[in-house]
């Protein structure tokens, strides 16, 4: 349980960092909460999602199917963390 | 014009206004004629037809810029159009220039990132996922000489590399259009229709570059209506919209819009005019939720492609004080 929480925190930090480095560098005034909808905020487009998915795949060694690239799974930091957790548990 | 319903449309008065607009544009630009690159498609056909009526067919040049092996028959349609209009026409195949620029090599390198055993004789295209209003995923389709097809998701860097290569086609065409425009002291007409213009379906410095854009306010079904009204050759007036970009036949719907053009017309019109999704169910054949998803995708695409319309940013280094 403790390990799971630590892993979860590490993933959350990594995803936050990815978003800050790759999506927010031109939006210094924007504060993104973990629950914020990244598409609605206008900080990511479809190709940006694909890059994010590629990063998640290579970083965590998981395979993401086309049908899994959805807002439900990748729309927010919370969603991404939960998705990675489910994939790793599977 | 753009606030009219796409399917409610008066061709004669529209043609009259566009002709006057084209003459005004030329006066403003100080040019004495118009270069139109004719692809064999309905958009460039209508632009050529309108320009011929506005300034006289002898003052337009119909340029045919086929890419060998890809635009099969397009150049013939362009010639048929020019003959029908009584306009001068020239053919300049762009494949040798593209070859020299490395377009095909880059294209093949990009495809091999996804299909390492790809051979130049295979055909290919990019297709998008079905519209959900959320994330769009692009896939590369290849077809081997024996007809078998395979589809794989295309990574972002391969996608960008492939698009950068195919955009060279539009930019090479535009280079030739301006070369002839300089020679003749003509203006260059752009051929985007309203769907392409509004949704950013054009190449910056390619088909997006022009001195005047006569049909940028017309929905696609209005362009088809004008093609009939102008009595363009049947091969052009009845031709389905294609991208003419990849070696496999590809519709604009499967690559970009995600909907057939008449439905896309209604979705863009509805989104622009604040029409409730429920009120668009009958004309689109979609349920209200899918209409709403269409609206979201239209807004996002418009935002994502805003930079294509933007003029160069003037960066001022002077001390304002």
Report the span from N to C terminus of chain B: 44 Å
CATH superfamily of chain A: ACP-like
Low-confidence stretches of chain B: none
Q: Which geometry of chain A do the CA atoms define?
A: globular
Average pLDDT metric of chain B: 93
- Largest sheet: spatial strand order of chain B: 3-2-1-7
- Measured by DSSP, the beta-strand proportion of chain A falls in under 5%
Mean pLDDT of chain A: 87
Low-confidence stretches of chain A: none
Largest sheet of chain B: 4 strands, parallel
CATH architectural group of chain A: Orthogonal Bundle
Helix content of chain A: 55-70%
Structural class estimated from helices and strands of chain B? alpha/beta
Can you offer a commentary on this structure?
The complex is a heterodimer of chains A (90) and B (321). Chain A is mainly α and 90 residues long. Chain A has a single domain, classed as ACP-like (Non-ribosomal Peptide Synthetase Peptidyl Carrier Protein, Chain A, Orthogonal Bundle). Chain A has five helices and no strands. Chain A has helices at 2-22, 38-41, 46-60, 71-74, 77-89. Chain A is globular. The mean pLDDT of chain A is 87. Chain B is of the alpha/beta class. Chain B folds into two domains: 11-98 and 163-308, HUPs (Rossmann fold, 3-Layer(aba) Sandwich); 102-162, no CATH class. Helix content of chain B is 49%, strand content 10%. Chain B contains 14 helices and seven strands. Chain B has helices at residues 11-29, 42-55, 74-85, 95-101, 103-114, 156-184, 194-199, 220-229, 234-237, 252-257, 261-272, 281-284, 288-304, 306-309, and strands at residues 34-37, 60-64, 89-91, 123-128, 138-143, 149-153, 187-188. A four-stranded parallel beta sheet of chain B has the order 3-2-1-7, with helices on both faces. A three-stranded antiparallel beta sheet of chain B has the order 4-5-6. The longest helix of chain B is centred in the middle third of the chain and has 29 residues, at 156-184. At the A-B interface, helix 3 of A face helix 6 and helix 13 of B.
């Amino acid at each position: 349980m403790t390990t799971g929480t630590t892993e979860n925190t590490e993933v959350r930090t990594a995803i936050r960092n990815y978003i800050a480095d790759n999506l927010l560098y031109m939006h210094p005034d924007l504060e993104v909460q973990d629950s914020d909808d990244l598409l609605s905020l206008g900080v990511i487009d479809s190709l940006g999602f694909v890059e994010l998915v590629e990063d998640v795949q290579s970083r965590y060694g998981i395979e993401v199917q086309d049908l899994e690239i959805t807002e439900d799974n990748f729309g927010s930091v919370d969603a991404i963390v939960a998705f990675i957790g489910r994939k790793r548990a599977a | 014009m753009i606030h009219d319903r796409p399917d409610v449309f008066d061709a004669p008065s529209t043609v009259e206004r566009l002709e006057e607009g084209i003459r005004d544009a030329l006066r403003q630009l100080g040019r004495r004629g118009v270069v139109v690159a004719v692809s064999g498609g309905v958009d460039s056909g209508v632009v050529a037809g309108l320009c011929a009526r506005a300034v006289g067919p002898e003052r337009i040049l119909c340029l045919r810029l086929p890419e060998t092996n890809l635009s099969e028959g397009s150049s013939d349609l362009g010639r048929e159009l020019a003959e029908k209009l009584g306009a001068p026409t020239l053919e300049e195949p762009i494949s040798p220039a593209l070859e020299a620029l490395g377009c095909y090599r880059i294209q093949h390198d990009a495809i091999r990132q996804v299909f390492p055993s790809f051979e130049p004789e295979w055909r290919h295209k990019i297709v998008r996922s079905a519209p959900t209003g959320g994330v769009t995923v692009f896939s590369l389709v290849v077809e081997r000489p024996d007809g078998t097809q395979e589809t794989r998701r295309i990574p972002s860097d391969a996608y960008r590399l492939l698009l950068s290569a195919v955009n060279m086609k539009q930019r090479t065409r535009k280079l030739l259009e301006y070369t002839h425009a300089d020679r003749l002291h003509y203006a260059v007409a752009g051929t985007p229709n309203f769907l392409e213009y509004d949704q950013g379906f054009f190449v910056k410095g390619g088909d997006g570059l022009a001195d005047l854009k006569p049909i940028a306010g017309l929905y696609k079904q209005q362009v088809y209506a004008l093609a009939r009204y102008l009595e363009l050759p049947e091969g052009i007036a009845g031709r389905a919209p294609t991208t003419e970009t990849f070696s496999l036949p590809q519709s604009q719907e499967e690559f970009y819009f995600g909907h057939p053009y008449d439905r896309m017309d209604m979705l863009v019109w509805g989104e622009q005019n604040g029409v409730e999704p429920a009120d668009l169910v009958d004309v689109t054949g979609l349920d209200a939720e899918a209409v709403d998803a269409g609206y979201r995708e239209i807004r996002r695409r418009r935002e994502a492609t805003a930079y294509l319309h933007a003029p160069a940013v003037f960066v001022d280094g002077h001390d304002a004080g």
